[in-house]
Every structure is written in structure tokens, then in C-alpha cells.
């Protein structure tokens, strides 16, 4: 039995297809603002993408609010275009802090990028989720009669 060796000339290197990497769209900046909703709530409005790079910004704004500042903290996520696992982690941690402080954490979510992760993980059953800010404010006693 003889073994055949293949000789490859360096003059004829095999062609390889190269595909340039697809540039990833820049992350939409995250903006987080808060304002009081008398008599008993603070609304935290979140806009942009909540991912592992921006979730600390959300955490830095949210955690001080849920430490016994007002009876209700409402996080308005209707302007969020992406909501990843890091964002869910921030909400779960904030919920634990809020519960310990006697503060109710409510979410406003009406878009697929936010509702889908909440639903898949079962967190929609843990959080008080409203589809609009007016409904969340009314549930917090900040509506026209409260």
C-alpha cells in the first residue's frame, strides 16, 4: 500500500470567500428622566435600548427612587426599542429593593420589545404592568380622583 502525498504549489492558493463584517447599528442612546406625580408617585421615563451596556444607567436612576422615597414608582418603558436580559435583571433587583422599602414598583409597557421578554420570563406576572401611563397613575392613586 502506497501513500500519495498531495503537493500544493504556493502559486495557486485556494480562493476563499471573504465577507466583510456587517456593521452593527450604533446603540440608541438611553435616556432616563424622572418627575413627580403627586400625591404619591414618581414616574421614571426610559427611552432607547436597555442592554448590558446601558442597564447600569437605568439602575443608577431607578434604585434611589425605590428606596422609600414615595409609595409608588412607575417605570414607563413605552419608549424602549430593545429590552434585554440586563434590563430584566435591573427590574428584578429594583423590585426586591422596593418591596423591602414598602414601595410599589409599577411598569408601563405596551410594545413588543418590552412585553416579549417580560412574558417569556414570566415577569409579567411578577410586576404590575399597565399598557399606558394614565392607567398606571390611576392604580397608584394619582388619577383625577386620587
Automatic annotation (TrEMBL):
Q: Where is this region: Disordered?
A: 14-37
Concerning InterPro entries, the annotation shows: Anti-sigma_ant, STAS_dom, STAS_dom_sf
STAS domain ranges (all copies): 39-140
Q: Give the family per the record.
A: Belongs to the anti-sigma-factor antagonist family.
PANTHER family, per this entry? ANTI-SIGMA FACTOR ANTAGONIST TM_1081-RELATED (PTHR33495:SF2), ANTI-SIGMA FACTOR ANTAGONIST TM_1081-RELATED-RELATED (PTHR33495)
Which NCBIfam families does this entry report, sorted A to Z? Answer: ant_ant_sig
Designated name of the protein: Anti-sigma factor antagonist
Amino acid at each position: 500500500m502506497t501513500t500519495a502525498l498531495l503537493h500544493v504549489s504556493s502559486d495557486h492558493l485556494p480562493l476563499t470567500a471573504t465577507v466583510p463584517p456587517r456593521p452593527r447599528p450604533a446603540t440608541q442612546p438611553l435616556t432616563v428622566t424622572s418627575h413627580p406625580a403627586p400625591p404619591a408617585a414618581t414616574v421614571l421615563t426610559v427611552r432607547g435600548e436597555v442592554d448590558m451596556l446601558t442597564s447600569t444607567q437605568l439602575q443608577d436612576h431607578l434604585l434611589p427612587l425605590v428606596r422609600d422615597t414615595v409609595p409608588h414608582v412607575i417605570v414607563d418603558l413605552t419608549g424602549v426599542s430593545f429590552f434585554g436580559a440586563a434590563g430584566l435583571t435591573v427590574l428584578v433587583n429594583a423590585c426586591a429593593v422596593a418591596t423591602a422599602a414598602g414601595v410599589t414598583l409599577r411598569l408601563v409597557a405596551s410594545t413588543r420589545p418590552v412585553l416579549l421578554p417580560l412574558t417569556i420570563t414570566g415577569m409579567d406576572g411578577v410586576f404590575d404592568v399597565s399598557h399606558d401611563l394614565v392607567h398606571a397613575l390611576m392604580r397608584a392613586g394619582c388619577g383625577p380622583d386620587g
